[in-house]
Amino acid sequence: MDRNPSNADTWLVIPLYNESSVVRDVVKDARVTFPNIVCVDDGSTDASVAEALAGGAVVVRHPINLGQGAALQTGLEFALGRPGAEYFVTFDSDGQHQVSDALAMVERLRAEPYDIIVGSRFLDGRTKAGALKKVVLRMAVLFERLSTGVRLTDAHNGLRALNRHAATSLRIHQNRMAHASEIVAQIGEHKLRYAEQPVHIVYTDYSRAKGQSLWNSVNILSELFIK
User: Fold this and answer.
1) pLDDT per residue over 26-37, tens digit each?
2) Which among 155, 159, 163 is positioned nearest to 200, based on CA atoms?
3) Which 3 state secondary structure label does DSSP give 58?
4) Domain 10-127+156-203 belongs to what topology?
5) What is the predicted pLDDT for the residue at 206?
6) Which helix (H) or strand (E) holds 24?
7) How far out from the chain centre does Cα 49 lie?
8) Looking at the predicted structure, is the pLDDT value of residue 217 above 60?
9) Per-residue model confidence (pLDDT) at position 1
10) Cα distance between residue 216 and residue 211, in whole Å
11) pTM for this one?
12) Interatomic CA distance for residues 56 and 61, integer angstroms
């Protein structure tokens, strides 16, 4: 049961880059549950800003494309400055994340002694990731466990819920894909209390058409072996 029906103390932080065809619906759907949403436009060259505003989000803009890590840091800093903000959710702009999962994660922060809840695609069978994606993500999990001591089953899941302590503790310096590993490392460094939540990541026709799943796998591999 939702302990705070208005969720006025929660902000969704959504990195945004050239998602004009979907972001309005993503924001509108999310605002039914979470009225406070900030989209960080990371130098989009399409109508993403106008569409996010039409959906009801606050929009903060980067004049050039810096990367998802930079957008998350900007969004968290903005949301931390809003009156009454206590919980923060990192959420994708392309429709892959589920609002119901985000709500369940925030409710766990309200009820349980955790600072951060990290989504996992591998705690139930709802998410249908491709074979290459699964192999790469399993490699990432092993790497992160060995390098940080933080034991997650899905180290590169972008759906996370944080309380104010966690949000103020994180400082994301890696602008691009390496930010996910940086967040995991900082969970360990700051001794944040963490848990995982089974989530359903929907690989839509839209995201597959962009080649997102394959390219993310390539980027994760690059991160693991180059950083």
Assistant:
1) 999 999 999 999
2) 159
3) strand
4) Spore Coat Polysaccharide Biosynthesis Protein SpsA; Chain A (3.90.550)
5) 80
6) helix 23-31
7) 19
8) no
9) 45
10) 9
11) 0.84
12) 15
